[in-house]
Design a protein that fits this description.
Blueprint lengths: L3 E7 L13 E6 L2 E7 L3 H8 L6 E5 L5 H4 L2 H10 L6 E6 L3 H11 L7 E6 L6 E4 L3 E7 L7 E7 L5 E2 L1 H6 L7 H5 L4 E2 L5 E2 L1 H4 E2 L6 E5 L17 E5 L7 H7 L4 H11 L3 E5 L9 H8 L5 E3 L5 E3 L1
Amino acid sequence: MQPFKVHILGCGSALPTRHHHPSSQIIDIRGKLFMVDCGEGTQSQIRRSRLNFSKLYAVFISHLHGDHVLGLIGMISTFGLQGRTSPLHIYAPKEYDTLFKLELQTFCSTLDYDVIFHPIDTSKHEIIYEDRSMTVETIPLHHRMPCSGFIFREKQGQRHIKPDMLKFYDIPLSQINNLRAGLDWTSPEGEVIPNERLTTQADPIRAYAYCSDTRYMPQLKKYLHGVTTLYHEATYGEDMKDKAIKYLHSTAHEAALTAYESGVQKLIIGHFSQRYTDETPLLNEAKAVFENTVLANEGKEYNV
């Protein structure tokens, strides 16, 4: 299968700590890199990760709290100093448009590459990016300001050829694309060879959802249909549920409940409050509801 990985650059909440950085992730889909959120210090975290700056195609910003966006303009400036020439696409809440243009004019007026801003309507669930192999969808979230989650979803791939069967039936290479598309083969003698005999099924579709920041939303399950791996904020445990309600965040229990209700295969929890120097209680709280839960951590890489 083609690579589909999540690299955690930061999984802390509003206040940076000695062991967590503000929110940022890079999604690697078939060698193409997409960033989700860009908190302060993100570009330093990219250097530590040894990911290739030049392969970053787009940045998706969930909302305009500083721990999710304050690293963006500095990173854009650094790309310019490194000699970037390929365009960089920024998908962010429409409310950021005016300020972002002012930041570019003030700090990045001499870039040798284009920065293209795509405004997001955080109240809608829609496809905002599409190419030959994948789509990116928005998910409306419930936070203290307009906020959107994102789903990175593969498109259905083609079937896999059985080379030995092609040789056995003496099928010309010119027919491979037809076979991958699911068509049968008719021999020169008129015998129809079923496609199932010549190919194996395409790889299952994978999808990764990023949900941060938000209160628990029972309706999320309708958006998360078909998601294999879910990242969901778990800023607090149930011991601090009053704060989760006050600041419109989720507890680890609520994140796990969302995963369970949505039928995902794996849950990654993050966006931890600085009040927790050890996130094990949050992990245990989530695993009591959804067993296949793991903690996000800087430098870790997760297969979708």
